[in-house]
Design a protein that fits this description.
The protein is an alpha+beta fold and about 200 residues long. The protein has six helices and eight strands, in the order H-H-H-H-H-E-E-H-E-E-E-E-E-E. The chain starts with a helix and ends in an 18-residue tail after the last strand.
């Protein structure tokens, strides 16, 4: 009996310690099971990320900016930046290209001085008329007039629906007989240029 009297006064303290340990264990276990502080289930970043990026909407102004950026890059003699704004380029590499979208980097580099000579004569450009852009991947075509009054038809598109616009064609062009359906016509003395960008008379 004497031994019981010595232990019994500490019973509330022991009970409090046990309760504190149980509460700590419960809090720690809730932290690792995907629940928030209120016990509501939460998703991990992998579960909430969208595997398919949202297609960007058609945007004539963005397409025009992309062409102007291409012209600026060429006139600045920045072949890498110009290449990144060209449809055949693969982001982050010059060893690969999208063959159906134009020439490879070596051919583009070979044409680059000719493109630069042509743009230095023709720039700046004034936008005359624009067409297309029915969906995120459909081309946008813009009829432009150069500083020396030559007309071109430029074609820009998003290679992937979520990507920025890139330049596909730059050739002489006129609006076709069907309203709203422009055709890129062969440029004088040079049907397209090696990379689908007219570079002037060779």
């Amino acid at each position: 009996m004497q031994a019981h009297r010595h232990i019994f006064p500490y019973a509330p303290v022991l009970a409090g310690l046990c309760l504190l340990l149980l509460l700590t264990f419960a809090a720690c276990s809730n932290g690792g099971d995907g629940n928030d502080a209120n016990g509501t289930a939460t998703a991990s970043p992998a579960e909430t990320s969208d595997p398919d990026p949202t297609p960007a909407p058609p945007d004539f102004q963005e397409a025009s900016f992309a062409f102007n950026a291409f012209v600026d890059a060429v006139l600045a003699d920045d072949v890498d930046s110009a290449w990144s704004l060209y449809t055949a380029s693969v982001p982050g590499t010059t060893e690969e290209h999208i063959a159906e979208m134009g020439c490879d980097f070596n051919a583009f580099g070979n044409e680059f001085p000719r493109i630069g000579n042509m743009l230095s004569r023709e720039a700046p450009f004034v936008e005359v008329e624009s067409f297309g852009g029915a969906s995120s991947t459909s081309p946008i075509e813009i009829k432009i007039q150069s500083a020396i009054d030559m007309e071109f038809l430029i074609t820009l598109l998003r290679v992937e629906p979520h990507e920025p616009y890139r330049l596909r064609f730059m050739n002489s062009g006129q609006v076709a007989s069907v309203p709203g359906a422009p055709d890129p016509f062969p440029s004088p003395d040079d049907p397209r240029g090696f990379c689908n960008i007219w570079t002037g008379v060779r």
